[in-house]
Amino acid sequence: MSRPRWTTHLLLVGGLAVVECASVEAQSFPVSSALRSESRQFDFWVGGWSVNLRVRQPDMTWSDEHSAHARIYPILSGKAVLELWSEDQVDGIKGYSLRYFDTARDEWILWLNWPGENRSGSSSLSGSFRHGRGEFFASSAGQDGTETTSRYTFSDITPRSLRWDDAFSTDGGETWRHSWIMEFTRTTERVSLPPDGGAAHTYHDGERCDAPEFRRYEFLAGRKDGQVVAGGEGPVTITGYRVLDGCAVLTFAGPGSDPATAWGFSHLTFNTYAQRYELTTLTSQRDTPARIFYSRDASDMVLYESGPGDAPRDRFRIEEDDDGSVLWIHETPVGDEWVPVWGGRVR
Q1: Number of H-type helices and E-type strands within the chain
Q2: Topology of domain 36-188, per CATH?
Q3: Which residues are within 8 A (CB) of 157 and not within 5 positions of it... i.e. 6 or more apart?
Q4: Whole-model pTM above 0.85?
Q5: Residues 35-74 pLDDT 10s
Q6: Lower CB count within 10 Å: N or C terminus of the chain?
Q7: Rounded distance, CA 110 to CA 164, Å?
Q8: Check whether domain 198-346 has CATH 2.40.128.20, yes or no
Q9: Residue 293: phi, psi to the nearest 5?
Q10: Residue 182 dihedral angles phi and psi, to the nearest 5°
């Protein structure tokens, strides 16, 4: 296949200069001109894919055991890509990931949630691309103290196909064992989320996570319009999506309902391991990293930023009023008070 020819067009989105990237094979999507070139390294993945998942067997052979569809969306004016991965059957594997280039760390950050039955929570990896191959790593300690390094790899990348595989090491990377290989074949150049929110790819009937804690934030699904009430002024639209068959809700805040031009993104779930609500946020600003917030217990929807030390950090309040309106407000501690950084009220 010949190399795609790229064209560029300048747009203005939310006060940011935006470059609209398009190949002759793909629809265009907006990309902020402020972003570093590394932020484009996952553009090859945008679109729809059929996936053949191969699983390693006890005798070390491989079996084609799962078929799925992955939809990869450009979001936040090109700063990040959103993955929704799903087998077609209700009880099949479901997955989500958020990927963006962190300018301070000079590497890609990946946040993932692949939930089970009433089991949910985020994990992260980091890494980079080199010579057309992406490698991303994370480390964790088992109950016996053994440290395991995980490695996720993208390779054999072409416009129509690519390979993903995982590997694990317990000896510091001297040896690796593999469990899964995913073979991606492109089905479409561009995918889109429903403009009015609601159920999105990976959602069936909501029964995977049907515990009461997962139902508590379902009021965020759908499109809601309103006004910025702190940290600025003007209209704002917050659009929410049920995903992972009831295990999480994704939201986008911006000038309209298009995630590609949104200012802010969030992933909200009940972290069953920590028994607290967990909020991951990311904005379209070039140098802002993802931030993680947790509620203090399972009964509260005030979420506090996670980080080292005991110093007070920012928090989010998410409140539904009796009239159906929703308040999203980001606050920072100043002395003994909480001062709004940004807020929006929508309905």
Answers
A1: 1, 24
A2: Lipocalin (2.40.128)
A3: 44, 132, 133
A4: yes
A5: 999 999 999 999 999 999 999 999 999 999 999 999 999 9
A6: N
A7: 14
A8: yes
A9: -125, 145
A10: -110, 130
- Phi-psi bin for 160: left (phi > 0), alpha (psi -120 to 50), beta? alpha
Q: Comparing 36-188 with 198-346, is the CATH topology the same?
A: yes
> What tokens appear for 287 in the block?
């140098």
Q: Measure the CA–CA gap between 39 and 100, rounded to whole angstroms.
A: 7
Main-chain dihedrals φ then ψ at residue 115, nearest 5 degrees = -80, 160
Q: Please list the residues that pair with 120 across neighbouring strands.
A: none
Distance CA 238, CA 222 (A): 8
Structure tokens belonging to residue 110: 């990946």
Both tokens assigned to 241: 């999506």
* Spatial separation of the C-alpha atoms in residues 239 and 72, rounded to whole Å: 18
188 with 48: CB under 8 angstroms?
Answer: yes
Tokens found for residue 223: 């499109």
**What tens digit of pLDDT does each residue of 152-174 get?**
999 999 999 999 999 999 999 99
Helix (H) or strand (E) holding 67: strand 62-75
Q: Say which amino acid occupies 251.
A: T
Q: Which of 117, 114, 139 is nearest to 126 (CA)?
A: 139
